[in-house]
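Practice problem 4.
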C-alpha cells in the first residue's frame, strides 16, 4: 500500500512540476513557421549605449533589420538609443521592466513588469502589437497564465548564441552558425545580447563583431533576415 502511495505522490509531483515549467497552454514561438531561408536576429537586455549604437551601424551596413527585446528601466535611461533603433526600422520587444526571474513571480507582479514596459515602449510612438520574451526564457506557469489571459505570444528561440558566457566573436559566430547551418534551420530565431542584465555597462564588442560575421555567412548561404513583426504577417501559423 505504501508503495502505491509513494508512486502516486511521485506521479502527482511530476505532473505539477510539468505543469509549472511547461504549461500546456498559450502560444510560444520557438521558430518561424517557414521552409524559406529566413532567420530572425533578436537582441536582448538593451538598450546599452554605446554598444547598441555600434550594433546598429553593423546592421545598417548589411541592410538587415532585427528585433530588440529591451528592459524597461533601460528604456527610461536611454531614450535616444530607443529612438534610433525605431528610426532605423528595427522592432522593439518587451523584456520586462527590471529583468527578474519572471517565471517564479506571482501573476500580478508578472503583469506589472509587462505593462510597465509596454507603457514605456508606447511612449516612443509604437502602436503595433508588442512582442514579449521572458528573461532567461522562463515561460513558467505565472508567465504563461498572464500572457494567455491577454492573448499574447511568448517569443522564445531555437538558436542560443551563448554570448552571455563569452565575448569571443569567433566562439559566438561558430555557435550560431553551427546550429543554424548544420541543420539548415529555415526559420530560426537567434538570440544574442546587446546588453547584459546584471551589468549596465557590459562590453558587447564580441557580439557586435560576431553579428557582422554571422550576417555575412548567412547571406552567403542564401538567408534573409526578418523582424518578428514580419513573421506575424507572413510566416506564423
Ligand atoms: Zn534577458
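Answer key:
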Amino acid at each position: 500500500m505504501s508503495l502505491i502511495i509513494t508512486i502516486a505522490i511521485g506521479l502527482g509531483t511530476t505532473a505539477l512540476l510539468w505543469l509549472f515549467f511547461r504549461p500546456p497552454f498559450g502560444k510560444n514561438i520557438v521558430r518561424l513557421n517557414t521552409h524559406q531561408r529566413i532567420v530572425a536576429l533578436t537582441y536582448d537586455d538593451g538598450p546599452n549605449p554605446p554598444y547598441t549604437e555600434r550594433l546598429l551601424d553593423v546592421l545598417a551596413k548589411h541592410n538587415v533589420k532585427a528585433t530588440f527585446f529591451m528592459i524597461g528601466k533601460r528604456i527610461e535611461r536611454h531614450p535616444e538609443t530607443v529612438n534610433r533603433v525605431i528610426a532605423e526600422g528595427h522592432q522593439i520587444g518587451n523584456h520586462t521592466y527590471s529583468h527578474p526571474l519572471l517565471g517564479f513571480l506571482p501573476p500580478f507582479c508578472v503583469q506589472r513588469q509587462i505593462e510597465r514596459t509596454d507603457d514605456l515602449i508606447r511612449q516612443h510612438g509604437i502602436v503595433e502589437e508588442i512582442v514579449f520574451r521572458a528573461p532567461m526564457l522562463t515561460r513558467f506557469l505565472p508567465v504563461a497564465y498572464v500572457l494567455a489571459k491577454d492573448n499574447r505570444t511568448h517569443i522564445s528561440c531555437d538558436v542560443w548564441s551563448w554570448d552571455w558566457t563569452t565575448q569571443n566573436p569567433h566562439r559566438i559566430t561558430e555557435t550560431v552558425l553551427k546550429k543554424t547551418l548544420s541543420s539548415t534551420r529555415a526559420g530560426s530565431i537567434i538570440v544574442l545580447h546587446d546588453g547584459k542584465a546584471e551589468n549596465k555597462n557590459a562590453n558587447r564588442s564580441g557580439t557586435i563583431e560576431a553579428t557582422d560575421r554571422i550576417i555575412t555567412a548567412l547571406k552567403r548561404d542564401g538567408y534573409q533576415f526578418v523582424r518578428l513583426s514580419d513573421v506575424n504577417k507572413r510566416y506564423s501559423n
